[in-house]
Structure formats: structure tokens, C-alpha cells
Amino acid sequence: MPQAAGRTEAAERILEAAKHLFAREGYGSVSIRDIAEAAGVSKANIFHHFASKEELYLETLRRSCEAARALLEAFREEHPCPAHQLRSFFRDDLRQASDDTDGSLLLIAEGFNAGPQRARALVEEVFGADFRRFTQVLAAGQSSEGPWRTDIDPAVVATLMIAANTFFISHREVLRQLPGVDFADDPERYADHVVDILLDGIRKEA
Amino acid sequence: MPQAAGRTEAAERILEAAKHLFAREGYGSVSIRDIAEAAGVSKANIFHHFASKEELYLETLRRSCEAARALLEAFREEHPCPAHQLRSFFRDDLRQASDDTDGSLLLIAEGFNAGPQRARALVEEVFGADFRRFTQVLAAGQSSEGPWRTDIDPAVVATLMIAANTFFISHREVLRQLPGVDFADDPERYADHVVDILLDGIRKEA
DNA sequence: ACACCAACCGATCGAACGGTCAGTGATCGT
DNA sequence: ACGATCACTGACCGTTCGATCGGTTGGTGT
């Protein structure tokens, strides 16, 4: 095991291949041989750079966490109107996830029925920050002179937005097959529709 | 391979154990030995009842599809008011998924980044019926004298509801860890909150 | 009584698994 | 010029994988 940072080009290829395969096939269905072949390196070389299959997997996870945080950080922009902020936040959220589909799939799969410890780690690393981002703008919109109802739990709205994002990324192909869905490949339109509904609901205003 | 229907008690235990393990660990991470041990039968007996690991997996899938359809069918109840219908449908949806968590997880995992063929099959077998159920009641509420806005795409609302359901089932533990979430173990409350938001949105009525 | 067949098991198969190791070639500081 | 270090490999290890095998048991029809 050489130093952690300053990866070789080969090590980088290994990580990239591992990330892709783990995200698409699942940890148990991917063998070191598969990764070696996809990365164009020898099997032994993988163990030269990473202590074990588990460690390699965890490294791809860490990377995806960092990438998600960095991208979200980069997108951050302030806007005085809570509605605009909500829309822009959700757009960013979807864009970030779309820009790193493999990483997002990896994190979603990790959260898929994870145990309490892993779920806690995941929340601390990624989901939590996202969730807080949403709940904060929601709470701001609910403040004394804010434009939003105060009898709505911000946590539910934030959950809905993360659920909408997660489903869009992880069930894209299902979405494509559903009748009447024309937004499966247009994150921005999907995001706008979702926010429109969240803001005003589907009921006619009296 | 004996007849398809009329399973032995042992075969039934095998299916049950396989369903549970596949749902929680994923296909690739579960071995025939694991299933045999969990079901309390010999490894060879599994191959006596099922042609292969793949075939066993597909059988658990088929079962979960049937169960989901049957349960949803059973819940069906009509109500004149579209809003009540939407609420009751979404409640049923969540209840059904909660009543057969393993089966739901299996189907969600199958839809997770499935290829076009598998996604199509899945839509035809389960997601499609659910989706149509939602879009129909939504379209009904949008009809000439319905109480709902006509500038909202029913497909987006239906997608949101399925996403909300899917996330609630598959990321329960993450949900438990998120700050301010007190509905992680109360599907009914979660369902009601979600429907409330979908109906009226979060914006104050002018 | 006997033939038959499904249910079931222990032992075993070749293949694939994660992981190890001795060694090679290139790049260093000295 | 030379030892040290690092990236990297082919051959190999023991284990476990999915799957098969021959064989035993118990019930059923005749």
C-alpha cells in the first residue's frame, strides 16, 4: 500500500472502473477480476493499491461522498426569494446527481436498507447536508413574514424532494417505460414540475 | 423439478428464505448455502426444487409481483371525492408495501437501474398498474368540473407518489437518522402529510 | 408384493472467488 | 554505480461458488 493521496494513473482507472461496476451490478456481483479487466490492469495490481475488495469499495464510496459535497458546494447560490431558492436548490440537487450518476447510484444503493451505523454515516456524509439545505430554506419561507404555510412539516417536504431525486436517478429506466412520462431524460423539466406542485399543490385556488 | 404449483413445505421455506436474503443482501451477495441454511434444508434440495439460483430468484420476483397486485386489488375502495380517493390510494400503496417489505424491496431493487427489458417487464407487472391508478384518479380530478388544476401533469404527481413510497420503504434507516423526521415508523402519518402537500402546496393561499 | 416417483441428502465436481508472493523493470537519491 | 523503493505482473494458494451425482427414504398406484 503506497501513500493514500497522489494516485497512480492505473490506480485512478481502478477506482473509476470499480465505482462504475459497483454502482451498476452491486458489490456482491462484481469480482476483482471484472474490475481488473475493465481497468486494464492485473488483478494483483489492485491489491497493490488497495488492501482488499472491501477497502476498494469503501474508497469509491468516500470519493462519491466528496464529489457530491463538492458539486453541491459549487452550485450554491443565494437568492432572496424562498421559492426561487427552493427551485434552484432542487435543480442543483438533480443536476449534481445527474452529473455523477455512478456516484449517486453508489450512495443510493448504500442507503438501500443499510443498517443503523451505515445509515448514520451516510446521513452525516451526504444525505444530511442535503436534507438540512432543504429544511433551512423551507423554515426560512415559513418565518413570521415568509410566504409559506406554517402547518407543513419541513422535514416531509425535504424528504419528498430527496425521494423525488433518488427515484429519478435510480429508476430512470422504469421512468422511461411509464406511460405518459416525457420528462425521464430532462432533469430540469422534472425539477420544475416537482417544485411547481410542491409550491401550490394540485388543487384549484378558491 | 416437480410440478410448478403445489409446493412442498420445504420448497416454501426455501422461497421465503431466498426472498428475505435476496431483498436484504442482494442477489450477488447471497449464496445457495446461505439460503439452504436459513431454510433448514440441504443445498441439494434447493436444486431439486429449482433449476438454478437465477430461476429461484426469478420465482421470488414473480411471487412478489403477484403479492403486490393481490394486496392492492384487495385494498381497492371507491370514494366519490377525488381528494379522498387520492389519499386512500396512497395510504393503500404504502400499507401494501409495508405489509410485504421484503417483496417490495425485491421489486425496488429489481427496478434499480434495470435494463430496458427488465424495466419494461417490471412496469407491466407492477409499477404500471400503480402508476395508472394514480394518474386515473388525478385525471378524474382534473375533468371539466373537477376540483384540480389542469396545468399540472398527472404523470409527475404519480411519479412523485411512487417515489415517496419507494424511498420510504427502501431508505427507512436513513429516514430514521435524518434530523426532525418523526414519521419514519408511521406510514399513515407520512402518507397524510405527503397528500396534504400535494393537494394544497406549501404556499399560503392569497 | 412390486414398480415407480418425488423428496431429500452427503459427497463431490470444475470453475471462480479473494488474496498472496516472488520477481521484473523503471526511477530514484547518494 | 548501486542499493532502495515503487508500480506492476504471472503463477499460485486455499476457499467457496453453483451445480451434479449416486443413493436412501417413504408414500402411492396396481
End-to-end separation of chain A in angstroms reads 67 Å
Query: Count of DSSP E strands of chain A?
Result: 0
CATH homology superfamily name of the largest domain in chain A: Tetracycline Repressor, domain 2
The number of helical segments of chain A is 10
Description:
Two copies of one chain form a homodimer. Chain A has ten helices and no strands. Chain A has 206 residues and is mainly α. Chain A has two domains: 50 residues, Arc Repressor Mutant, subunit A; 138 residues, Orthogonal Bundle (Tetracycline Repressor, domain 2). Chain A is elongated. The model of chain A has no long low-confidence stretch (mean pLDDT 93). The interface between A and B is large, with 76 and 76 residues. The first copy, chain A, binds a DNA duplex (30 and 30 nucleotides) through helix 3.
Offer a quick outline of the entry:
The structure is a homodimer of 206-residue chains. Chain A is mainly α. Chain A folds into two domains: 50 residues, Arc Repressor Mutant, subunit A (Orthogonal Bundle), CATH 1.10.10; 138 residues, Tetracycline Repressor, domain 2 (Orthogonal Bundle).
Write the layout of secondary structure elements.
2 copies of one chain form a homodimer.
Chain A: H1 9-25, H2 32-39, H3 43-49, H4 53-75, H5 82-99, H6 101-111, H7 116-142, H8 154-170, H9 172-177, H10 187-200
The structure holds a DNA duplex (30 and 30 nucleotides).
